[in-house]
């Protein structure tokens, strides 16, 4: 029998963080504990309004599984019982942690993967004026990869300011669906000249068919347009890469399957995150091994992280210890 505990936690950010859809000062996460056989497995998710989620709705989805869990629902059954999304992610990752602890093994070994190694993550610059983003770039010029949140008009000036203040950093930009097709056509060649290596989700997901008929001087990565395995079919010809986030796939189980399928279809893989604690990042470390772009900087944007959190040395992030997860 598996017992369930679910809770809401609020984590302050170091500073207000803005993207094209708005800004926030806290990360409101939902944590899950599954207990069985004297062991406890943990998972965390961040409900996202863009996908119709709230903390309350996600807790409700998780609570609705309580009797099924008590009745013997396992991780395989969870994939059929719940739709992809934040709620299933928290439960799925808690199952992986629980299974590893009960087997006196690791989640990587259970998944048939080699032990994870350290990775270099992007560091994300919040959306601001060109001057503000230039100052932020100067403060983080030592980081190997900077990811810029952008929004539309003024973005070329923003990127130019970052490039000027952090000339050695590799750059990726994330529009969070904030551009029009006309802006993409105008911006993309200029961004290539500024050294940008990837553009993430330039157009609204509902409008991304337009990308099939536009030149791509820089690889374009699907984020809001890519959720689980059923997303892949319509992405070919529109995107060169996909961003895998466990809160979208509904957990590590589908994220690993999505990565395999995407690579088989020729997509490059980025592994990303929401702004959350190390408990959210830890399972994604398994998916991120070998990924072309790693964006697991969530804890770096928090005022504090949970105990036994991931170790960051600059932009290098190290695998979790068993005390955290897996």
Helices and strands in order:
Elements: E1 3-19, E2 22-36, E3 39-45, H1 55-63, H2 66-70, H3 75-81, H4 86-102, H5 107-110, E4 119-120, E5 123-125, H6 130-139, E6 145-149, H7 155-165, E7 170-174, H8 181-193, E8 196-200, E9 220-222, E10 241-244, H9 246-249, H10 252-264, E11 268-271, H11 278-288, E12 293-294, E13 312-313, E14 316-317
Parallel strand pairs: 5-6, 6-7, 7-8, 8-9, 9-10, 10-11, 11-12
Antiparallel strand pairs: 1-2, 2-3, 4-14, 13-14
**Average predicted confidence as pLDDT:** 97
Q: Secondary-structure element sequence?
A: EEEHHHHHEEHEHEHEEEHHEHEEE
Report the helical percentage.
25-40%
Q: Biggest β-sheet, characterized?
A: 8 strands, parallel
**Strand content range:** 15-25%
Question: At the first level of CATH, what is the class of the largest domain?
Answer: Alpha Beta
- The name CATH uses for the topology of the largest domain is TIM Barrel
Oligomer: single chain
Uncertain parts:
none
According to DSSP, the number of beta strands is 14
Molecular shape: globular
């Amino acid at each position: 029998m598996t017992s369930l505990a679910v809770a809401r936690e609020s984590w302050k950010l170091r500073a207000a963080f803005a993207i094209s859809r708005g800004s926030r000062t806290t990360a409101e996460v939902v944590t899950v504990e599954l207990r069985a056989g004297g062991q406890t497995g943990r998972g965390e998710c961040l409900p996202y309004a863009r996908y119709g989620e709230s903390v309350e709705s996600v807790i409700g989805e998780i609570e609705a599984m309580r009797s099924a869990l008590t009745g013997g629902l396992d991780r395989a059954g969870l994939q059929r019982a719940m739709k992809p999304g934040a709620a299933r992610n928290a439960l799925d990752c808690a199952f992986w942690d629980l299974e590893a602890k009960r087997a006196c093994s690791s989640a990587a070994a259970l998944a048939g993967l080699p032990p994870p190694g350290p990775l270099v993550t992007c560091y994300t610059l919040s959306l601001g004026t060109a001057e503000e983003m230039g100052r932020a770039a100067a403060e983080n010029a030592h980081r190997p990869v900077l990811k810029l949140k952008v929004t539309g008009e003024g973005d070329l000036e923003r990127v130019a300011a970052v490039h000027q203040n952090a000339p050695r950093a590799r750059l990726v930009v994330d529009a969070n669906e904030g551009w029009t097709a006309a802006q993409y056509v105008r911006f993309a060649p200029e961004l290539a000249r500024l050294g940008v290596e990837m553009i993430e989700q330039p157009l609204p997901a509902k409008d991304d068919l337009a990308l099939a008929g536009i030149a791509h001087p820089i690889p374009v990565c699907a984020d809001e347009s890519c959720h689980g395995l059923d997303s892949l079919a319509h992405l070919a010809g529109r995107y060169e890469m996909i961003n895998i986030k466990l809160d979208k796939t509904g957990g590590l189980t589908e994220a690993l399957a999505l990565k395999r399928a995407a690579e088989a279809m020729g997509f490059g893989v980025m592994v990303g995150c929401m702004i959350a604690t190390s408990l959210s990042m830890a399972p994604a470390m398994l998916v991120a091994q070998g990924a072309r772009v790693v964006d697991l900087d969530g804890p770096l944007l928090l005022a504090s992280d949970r105990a036994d959190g991931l170790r960051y040395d600059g932009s290098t992030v190290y695998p979790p210890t068993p005390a955290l997860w897996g």
